[in-house]
């Protein structure tokens, strides 16, 4: 390691000298505090920026020697980042927020990089689909009209209830995007997805549909076994249900909330403060990987699919991963439709960690009782800024622009960290991150204002 540091110093000097002589922008070698790193991930296609940064040498370009290690589940992954066994990880967008506010494990986790937009779907069993189809309108070709709303699932849930049977659905983690997207979709169709409380963290209080945790790779088998009647998960586990003939994806998260942020790269705040240059270098490599994944109208996606199919990464069949990663999505068997933005890694400023994205997740935590009491708008803002770190992101981006690796127009330099009000939700409710409490007031199902859960009832505090 000492030999490498010495060599790196010589190389850095050579780079400066060459740059001065030629006037060209060459890579700036940061003075790394730590060079050997271990990152965790879950076997999902949206871990792609990590795999590509490794396989294409972007980490090594920054002087980083990285090991990528799959984790058993999201809790293990988070715990290992907190205790320092992992330097950082592919995380659910809600994980740094949930940990920082103390829902579940208490730890200050931050993110300076958003890994992707979209990428999830909701799948139901064949039996449930057969019942839903009776209520879904069709087009001239006899195909279901999309997006398919939970309104068409409601009669099925009511039938289960009338027969005294629970309607069980799977999601991957209590603070997962999948949990909030599934809840959003269900509630928009008049199906109550259940509340959390201080004393009951099942999330099933008053629930018409009962949501519980299932690790992503186990979703299809759990559905096939009849333990759950549907699930929300990332790819390739919706398409796997189609290939196995055990279920039907009915809606994507692109249709629930167009271009929603999905995963982030998370590290502990302590780690970020101890290794600031290393952190910046990691973000630089990930930005380059995201660019590679989207550039030239997704021209690199077929190669990315082959990389992800390796057992070291996702380990699913190439055909299954390609079904969504190359711009299509198959719903009912044979009903393959163009969804060019099903997976977005770079365009639309996808990698920028927006405060408004963080605040949306916090509103959903409040809506369903994971944040048990009302909070001021200022609390939402302060929490978002404690966890999301666009300052680190823009430092890395500026270095890449100076090096000629990326274009200046690829980044939102002048933003205040808030997206413009968003209207592309399945229920047409608009969202403005500047007004989180006013946003919560718009929903018929969910906590708002000073409401709390007492026992199994909603009450004013």
TrEMBL record:
InterPro entries: NrtA/CpmA_ABC-bd_dom. The keyword Membrane applies. Keywords: Cell inner membrane, Cell membrane, Membrane, Signal, Transport. One of its GO terms (cellular component) is endomembrane system. It comes from Terasakiella brassicae. It holds the Pfam family NMT1_2. This is Nitrate ABC transporter substrate-binding protein. The lineage of its organism: Bacteria, Pseudomonadati, Pseudomonadota, Alphaproteobacteria, Rhodospirillales. Residues 1-27 form the signal peptide. It is found in: Endomembrane system. It comes from the Bacteria.
